[in-house]
Amino acid sequence: MKRNNAFFFLILLPLFGRAQNDLLKELEKETKATTEYATSTFKGTRLINGQTVETKGKGALEFIFAHRFGSINSGVYNLFGLDQAYVRIGLEYGLTDKLGVGIGRNSVDKTMDGYLRYKILRQSSGVINMPFTVTAFGIAALRTSPRTQDASYDIQLEDRMSYTSQLLIARKVNRNLSLQLMPSMVHKNTVDKTIEANDQVALGFGGRLKVTRSVALTTEYYYRFNVQQGNPYYNPLGFGVEIETGGHVFQLVMTNSRGLTERAYLTETAGDFFNGTIHLGFNITRTFQLKSSE
Amino acid sequence: MKKFLLLLLTCSCLTTLGQKFSVEKSLITFFSDAAIEDISAKNTKTNSIFDLETGEIAFSIPIKEFKFAKSLMQEHFNEKYMESDKFKSATFEGKITGYDAKSTGQQTAKATGKMTIHGVTKEIEVPGTIEITKDKALIKSKFNVKLEDYSIPRPQILWQNIAEAVEVSVDFTFKPYEKK
Fold it and tell me: How many domains does chain B have?
C-alpha cells in the first residue's frame, strides 16, 4: 500500500510540475543574451556652450539657434545685459546614426564654422559591455572679422582659421545622471604670442541631471592647461536648465562665455563668473526628419 | 499493475511536455493616428512560446527595439513615455481558446491573460486568428491599448500628438520548439 502511494505520487508529480511551469519564466530563460545600448545620454548635441557625445539619428536635421545676452553685471543701462545679444545659427545633419556634419555662423568675431562628429563607441551592457560612449569631434572655424582693410596687419585667410579637436567621453550613470569628460585641443593659426600659444589644451567636465520627465539640469566646465602669464581669459563655466517639448529642446543657460564656437569659448572667455560677468542665454533646437531613420 | 503504473507515469510525463512552439518570425506594430501626425513603429525582436495543445502563450517585447521613422520620436517614446530603462519589456501571459488544434486553415480564436506594459499589469481579452499548418502555427491579433490603462503619460502641450489609444498588431509565426 505504501508503495502504491509512492507510485500515485509519482504519477501526480508531473502535474504539479505543470502547474508551476511558468511559460513566461521559461521564455526569459530561453531568450538569448542581448546587448542593451544606453540611449539619451544627453538630450541634445550641446551641453551648455560645448558638445555632447550625442549624434543626430540618420536623416535628422537639427536647426540650432543659440544666443547669449550681454553680461548681467553690465548694469541697468544695458538692462543687465538684455540689450545685447550674440547669436549662433547652425544646422546639423545625421549622415548615419554615428556620423554627423554641421555648419554655423556665430556673430562673435563673425565666425563661420564647419564640423564633423563621429560616435566611436557606444555605452552598452549585456553581451557587449562598454562603460562609455565616445565621440570624436572636429571643427574648423573662420573668423571673418576684422575686414582685411581694417586689420592692423596684412591679414590672410590662414590667419583667420582655427581648428579644435575633442574627444567626448560620456557615461550614463543611471536613468537620471550622465557625466562627460572632454579632452580638447585648440589650434589657432595666428595668435598674440604675448598672451597665448598657438596650441592650447583643455579638459572639460560636464553633467546632466534629469529632475522630471522633461526637465534636466546641466553644467559644464573647461580647465585650460597651458595658460600663459598675462593671459586675460578665464576658464569657461556654465549652468543650464533643459526643457523639452515635442520636437524642441529649450536650454536656458548662465555662462561666463559669450562665444559659441570652440575657439571662442575655450580660449577667449572674457568673463569672470565669480565677479558676476555672467551671460544669460538660450539654445533652442528643432529637429526635422528629412529621411526615414530605418 | 506495476508495469501499468509505470506506463501511466511515462504517458503523463509526455503529455506535460505538450507541443510547444517557439517564435520563428514576429512583428509587433503599433499605430496611432492623430491630427498632426501619425505615429507608428515596428518591432521584430519579440520572443514567444506557444503551447498548441493547452493554448498557453507567453511573449515578451523588448521596448527599445521598437523602430520609428523619426529617431527623435523613438527617443521620446523610450525616454518620456515608456521609460524603457526602467520597464525594459512588455509581456503577455495567457491562453488562447476557441480553436481546434487538429484542424488546418485559419480559425478565429481569442486570447485572455495578463498584459504587462510600462510596469502595469492588466487582464485583457483580445480577438485574433490562428492557422495551424504541418509544422507551423500562425497567430495574428489586432487590438487597442489605452495609454491611460498602463499609466503611460500623454504630452500635455501637444496632447493631440498622441491618441488616447493606440492600435497594436501582433503577428507571430511559430515553429516547433527546440531546446537550445
Answer: 1
